[in-house]
Amino acid sequence: MRHPVQAHSEGVAARPGYMDAPWEKPTLLRREWLVALALFGLIGVLVPLAHVLLPEGAAFRPSTYLVTLTGKILCYATVAVALGLIWGFAGILSLGHGLFFALGGYAFGMYLMRQIGRDGSYGKDLPDFMVFLDWKTLPWFWQGSDQWWWAMLMVVFVPGLLALVFGWFAFRSRIKGVYLSIVTQALTYAAMLLFFRNETGFGGNNGFTDFKRIFGVSITAPGTRAALLAASALWLLVAFLACRFIVRSKYGRVLEAIRDAETRTMFLGYDPVPYKLAAWVFSALLCAIAGALYVPQVGIINPSEMSPANSIEIAVWVAVGGRGTLVGPIVGAFLVNLAKSFFTQAFPQLWLFFLGTLFIVVTLALPNGVVGLLRRRKETNN
Amino acid sequence: MDILLQSLARPLILLRLLASLALLALGSPANALPSAVIVPLAGDDPDARSQAVDAITSSGDPNAARILAALVDARLYLQGESAVFVENDKAFRVEDGASAPVPAGEAIIANNRLRGEADAALSSLRLFDPVFEVRMAAAKELASSADEAQRDALARALAGKLDPKVRALVEVALARIELQSPEPAKRTVAAHTLSVSDDPQVKSVLAERMRDEADPDVRQAIGAALAAIDRRVARSEIVARVLTGISLGSVLLLAALGLAITYGVMGVINMAHGELLMVGAYATYLTQDFFRHYLPDMQDWYVIAAIPVAFLAAAAVGLVIERLVVRFLYGRPLETLLATFGVSLVLAQGARSLFGAQNVELSNPSWLSGGFELSAALVLPWNRIGIVAFSIAVLGLVALVLVNTRLGLYVRAVTQNRRMAACMGVPTGRTDALAFALGAGIAGLGGVALSQFTNVGPDMGQAYIVDSFMVVVLGGVGQLAGCVVAAFGLGIVGKFLEGWTGAVIAKILVLVFIIVFIQRRPQGLFALKGRQVEA
């Protein structure tokens, strides 16, 4: 989509005002590529390698705790990027993104449950919770879950289909703004209630846990943890690049136009439904795969991941980092979750006060988040 | 009255009550009972003992019930020729009920058979008690537990003069016994009689008999009786469900009413609304504590005192939220949503720090416990009736405020057209603040109501926020009438689904229904027309 003139003269980039024409920007500038790849190299390659190669007790060996925490936050950051895409660029504030995340996690968790085999506490072929419920055979929706490729297919298919169906109905009826937020919240709330039931067939309120193996290897081995961390980092990078590509494309421009004035965009001849729907489903898929990567790292998935409060917390990551950017959500996810790890260990009773205050302060004082603040400072300095 | 009814359910207290009633009648021992009647009771001849019990029962002596109760509890003494019974460490002579010295010797020991006969005689005696409630309670007890030994007593009672309600119950009691009769004809008649009973026990008795019954005629009669009972039970279950649905709807209405106002006027989605309910509930708890410490005599009325306290507490919190947070976010609904969610986290955690993570104890005042009995299978608890009345009263007050006060006028003006209202001199900022406080105060009132039948704890707000939003969204924003219809509709539909599918699936179905409904009728729900759509 580059302007033909530009191909000849790279020098044009220095012209003032050029940078403000986003439709002519590449996905990433060269400097940005360097930063992104360097960060990926550090977190996604160096840390996992150090964890595997350095001997236990070495000074610079990243601890298991650090590796798991980083992997977890990387998954959260991917979800934040996914929400940042639809909230920041399509104006859709979903308060139900935790649902897609959790569904992806459950779909992959089913595979992990089957990998336990006969090593569960009952020593049966069926997962422990089914034995506990006195079930004799696998329910139909568990068929095939012992195959990793089937599990991966389901990770994409189930949340994707739900997002497609829900999004199609919602966008076609032109539900937007606060209503969409509330309806998505109701959706995840309903799903949470459903998964809390033992009879639903996903382990009730205990969910899935006590995983032993993944792809036949021990799930707690340093190599597995390192590989999962690397995969999470890679998936975040892919998600970020894909979203960046989307918002820099013509499609992304239309999306922003719909965000700012949906009716006006319609009068210009665009049907907003497919634009919004595509972004929505894509965003849900990013979450689902992040969820599938999250579950083997934290070792548990249960319905509380679908609680409305969890989903709304994702929104605060995006808000803290900066709406309308894609770096912001990543920054926000890291800041808030590191703060959470710190507070819940040091001052557990203060964490919710802090989180609540964060919601208020960010919306009142930092409408563009941390990234917006830094950007403004840079501009004033120039 | 309730206290009376409740205590009547317990036979022991009942006996004591009977005794005191009988004491009143002491002045005129019309049919005095000679001590000689008691003498055989102390003897060994079982037939003579039974006859003695019969003699006491049929004597018409006002003290007969007390004497029989004393016999059952081994408080009846025979000292030489004079019989004495003891009640609460005081002794009375059998022949005239006058006080007597407390006897020292052994009481008359009744064996099981005699005690059974005395018990049976007691319950049929109570059927003729001067107090109606005592008669009813006795009849109910008979209807659910009469056995073979009481057959003759019951038949005798039926021959006497009974109130129609008591008679119906006694007939059921007798029929239960007759159902086990060796004669098929009697069993058939008994089954017919039992078909009018509402008592769930009767049904199981019939079903049990049906299993062992061989006679085809009797089988048919029992079958018909069972079917009739089932029909009536099904009918009263439907009624019960509608009524619990209405009371659930009232809760939803109270929870959502405030939200409807804040959203309707300011377009503010207040995620902290559930926590305002919580503030109201905790205010109720504090009021209860205050009464417990300073006004223990009036503790039953703390709920009434809590109503204004909770309103003011929640309204004050609401006012603070509006001034500190919401005010700066008008016109940015998504940001408001996030900020008020932050407020809700802070409030819930604040409650957790102040009152602990556990639920706090709230007692139901005695005038709200118990229930209004429509039939044996259908009792309306007073607290449910209370909440329906309360929510209707609050609804009426809100409507009154909106229609008849200056604040209401301003609120309506701002709702319709904020800028035009400002041009006409309506202080929109102050109206916003007051309307928000009003909405919050109503949430506080909802908290009072909720405190009476759900747990009061720091997490209670979260439980109601999704439900309240569903009511507002379904009913149409800013419309009181829509809110009312949606609340009661959701309440009743929810309760019906609950009966068929269980509580969780019912909730899920309702949520899915709302999600689908919104897809189908977005504009009808949001009540936005013309140019307002893009506003």
Quick tags:
heterodimer; A: two-stranded antiparallel ribbon; two-stranded antiparallel sheet; B: 535 residues; mainly alpha; four-stranded antiparallel sheet; two-stranded antiparallel ribbon; elongated; disordered C terminus
Description:
The complex is a heterodimer of chains A (382) and B (535). Chain A is mostly helical. Chain A has one domain. Helices cover 68% and strands 2% of the residues of chain A. In chain A, strand 2 (213-214) and strand 3 (217-218) form a beta hairpin. In chain A, helix 2 packs antiparallel against helix 8. Chain B has helices at residues 2-8, 11-24, 39-42, 46-58, 64-72, 112-126, 132-145, 151-159, 164-178, 184-194, 200-212, 216-266, 273-294, 302-324, 333-355, 382-404, 406-416, 418-423, 428-451, 460-475, 480-501, 503-520, 522-526, and strands at 76-79, 82-87, 90-93, 99-100, 371-375, 378-381. Chain B has 23 helices and six strands. By secondary structure, chain B is mainly alpha-helical. At the A-B interface, helix 6, helix 7, helix 12 and helix 14 of A face helix 15, helix 20 and helix 22 of B.
